Amino acid sequence: MPSIQALAAIGLAIGMFVAFALSMIVNDTPVVGLLLPTMVQLSTQGGMPASRALIPIKSAVLVGWANCSLRCCSICLPPAFWPRSSYL
Question: Model's pTM, two decimal places?
Answer without folding.
Answer: 0.67
